[in-house]
TrEMBL record:
GO terms for molecular function: hydrolase activity. This is Nicotinamidase-related amidase. PROSITE patterns: TAT. Signal peptide: none annotated. It holds the Pfam family Isochorismatase. Residues 68-267 form the Isochorismatase-like domain. InterPro entries: Isochorismatase-like_dom (IPR000868), Isochorismatase-like_hydrls (IPR050272), Isochorismatase-like_sf (IPR036380), TAT_signal (IPR006311). It comes from Roseovarius lutimaris. PANTHER family: PEROXYUREIDOACRYLATE/UREIDOACRYLATE AMIDOHYDROLASE-RELATED (PTHR43540). Keywords: Hydrolase. The keyword Cell wall biogenesis/degradation does not apply.
Amino acid sequence: MCNCHDHDHDNDPKFTRRQALTGTAALGAATAATFAAGAAEAQTTDPYAPPAEPALPPSDMVLDLARTALVVTDPQIDFLSPDGVTWGVVGESVTRNNTVENIGRLFRAAKAKGLTVAISPHYYYPTDHGWKFEGALEKLMHKIGMFDRKGPLTLDGFEGSGADYMPEYKDYIHDGKTIICSPHKVYGPETNDMVLQLRKRGIDQVILAGMSANLCTESHMRELLEQGFEVAVVSDGTAAAMLPEGDGYLAALTNFRYMANALWTTDEVVEKLG
């Protein structure tokens, strides 16, 4: 290796790239150590609490109510009621976040301001049980009859079933103004008319809440972001299952913080709308 000073190493692309890679690696190691220490400390207090010293830039999302919609995924009995088939695994998270009441507050505040409100429900019809391959959660949902309806053209047996909406939301959903989208079939809105309905109303900002945090809610967030919407997720307007495979709510919070344009509490949303 040359030890002379005649070469301009600053203009040597190999040299600068090597320096950058070394510096980046060192920074990454230091950052990882800091995050690990912070995570360990958080685990001793509240694992869901916002980081004390965030590394990512703060949100600069400002609502323009004429262009804003409240979107609620799966506001249904099977996810949010003790009578629902998933309560045994989501109940703790729903209760801790006060999710049912918070979604109600979001509906009430949005309606009071005349916002566009849309729900993206999840239904399965008998023909959907003929699928030849499924992911783990799809298999479980079909096995336990989650969101089952007798058919797309009948409401026979719908009232009060697990696919029905929570009773406390029905006045908001059935007011003749709320958009009730066609059902999504797995997790995201790619299989329903959510994006079309929002675009046709000139909406490009979304306040997103509903169930379940790391499944349908996160999938809606991802697709809406890809479609060019500005998305604020309501952190306590959602919840998720807690299984041996992992804490779904904690997993979703990480991705909400990484990707959403904003992560607000219900109190913050109500204040912004008020």
